[in-house]
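Fig. S4 source data, part A: sequence.
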Amino acid sequence: MIALNELNTRLLQVYGAICLWKFCKVFDIRHKDIDTLLSHLVSICIVKSLPDWEQAGVQITITGRGDGLPGDIVSIIPEELMDTFTILIEYVIEIGIVDMYGDNTDLPFDFTHHCIDILTRYGIDAPDHTILVRYNNPSGRVWGNTISKESLHEILRFYDIDLVI
């Protein structure tokens, strides 16, 4: 298993988003609202206020917080993938919010490993995390510090992901 314990929580959130992106890419699942969700998730690395970031996530179409998926998203997901897609979104979102207002736990790592398990179940390789380790900057804090927008764009280019941030 890859050493995700090398990553702070912000970067684990980015890694989870990359897992979701990879799943969507393999199964050719594309929608502007999925891109909006992915952009929001990776933006955790550049925002100063985590509570503001968390609240912004409630405002997007796909919240992953038990609200269900909009009909136009449901219509593009193969029926046999619907449950997996839904739970993958929930796992990815939990990475960044599970410890937001409480103690620091191992739950962000656990949810990240659940994402990897889903990819593995479908024969999808887990994303390489070495570029993320380069930007890890915990400074004694589990959440880590922000990185520059340019650094986030470099990370996304590494994975060949084109998102508006």
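Fig. S4 source data, part B ends here. Residues 46 and 146 are 5 Å apart (CA to CA).
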